[in-house]
């Protein structure tokens, strides 16, 4: 059989594209026949002939819909034979309909007396299971049986606990080895899938305050390694899952650190950068390499580089579950950052080895879509990709008992998939948090189908990072000359009012969908950005701007989001994209925690105020427009009055004064009654007595104040 420059591809169930070198039988009319195992199956009807560079393309109709999973050949009328390969048929709706598998048993299902393996590989013509003992010795390969919907299965009636395995898949006449996309555990560096007895990892009972709305959350983003790696973190298991289980840790000067610090700070949820298995770090080289984790390799299995022993697949599962349980015990919810929009490298991914061409998007020219900027985009709109994503989300919710998700580059995911994610997540935990990046990126998906900010009205109970809020307050990520509000850029009262209340008509997010932030793991930290914008000023002035920006995040209507260390002026030493930078750039510097207790206390105070009164957590435009009013206290202030809000908390009237002036300013507080101030001494408690004795006040530069009346 000739398999060189002669090619044939099944591009639809009954359509075959044939490529023949132009030098072969030039100016002759060619006829083609379909064969299977040496038997003639029928003549192909040539629908069109197209000349392309060096080749003649024949578009043909097959005599029947060609079943996948078998090896067919094409023969021309002169006896030239070449292979029929699976082509673009796998990206057709008909393929999805014909081969969609709705079972919930893909992967390895272990019991003590047997393990059942199931793999969805409809284009494969042969599949074998490669089995490896727990000590790394290969035990041979065992043929699997093809069943309905292209699912291959095998039952081994032995106790295979702690053994490893992979699949050998033959597609388009080529054998490839791949790990299991549904593997719950993997070997070191994800080389093999692992067989684990999941029943050994028991669920536990925990209780967190129920969120009536996403606006009740205050999210704090951190990275497992960054959190504890610093020499002054006070934690022993530096850079590891186990650091989150260490209670009562302190810095060298006796300040709280670790999980105790998180509890004291006042945030409600900890968002962890990806903790599923990812590429980019050699897990055998302890502390030698660094990566954020946005190179996903296995969606269901936890990462090993944060484990005390990455060689033991069950160890990392146990440690991650203990981390989550520890946060729950301290009253903190857990949000996991997930990356379902791309993989590390398409060509070597298990997806591409198992069903080549199916899991990824392609443009009209047949080239891989690259909205992610990572060389590939997962085709979430295809039924078995959607199933994989939804199954992974469900597994993390049920097995790891987490409290929500942050979706990386959510705008690359289709709306139907995200609606199904939302339905499944909230059926398990009604108050779970779902947030994501709704950027509109150039992927091979129609704009109306993307989960973007512009389409936020098409999906409920999913929050979007508000880039307008970030860029207005901090300055543009993409134009370093754009100083931002806290660096002196002017805003009208109406512009500021619409921004912090999330009721502007030029931006589609309402409060329950707006994640308000000025800093996250991406791009410059706020401190580094302010150095670029205001490099000549003193550190004290820069700290005022920084603190001012964070106060706006905390008190605005919407969902406040803080980057770990933001509250004590975190720096990454000017590095904008630190995804693989060394620890000294990325680690959370606990020395800064010691040096900035006053600022931490002030922000802790503002978070306590936010949580104590529902006026800061209104849920709709109607509520906001009913109660919030602009108050003019002069050109250097933006002031908001929440009126008649006693139904939401202790205070009937709340005045928030954002003083953006760079000099002290005397103001007369509005109305005839005197006001009390909540946050002046940074020691606010919800039930403390407040003296109502203020009618005028001297505002400090770049500071936010909260005044109240009963």
From TrEMBL:
Tell me which InterPro entries the record gives. GH (IPR017853), GH13_cat_dom (IPR006047), Glyco_hydro_13_N (IPR004193), Glyco_hydro_b (IPR013780), Ig-like_fold (IPR013783), Ig_E-set (IPR014756), pulA_all-beta (IPR049117), PulA_N1 (IPR040697)
Query: One biological process GO term for this chain?
Result: carbohydrate metabolic process
Q: Which Pfam families match?
A: Alpha-amylase (PF00128), CBM_48 (PF02922), pulA_all-beta (PF21653), PulA_N1 (PF17999)
Glycosyl hydrolase family 13 catalytic domain segment(s): 221-604
Q: Which GO terms describe its molecular function?
A: hydrolase activity, hydrolyzing O-glycosyl compounds
Name the protein family: Belongs to the glycosyl hydrolase 13 family.
- NCBIfam families named in the record: pulA_typeI
What is the designated name of this protein?
Type I pullulanase
| Gene of this entry | pulA
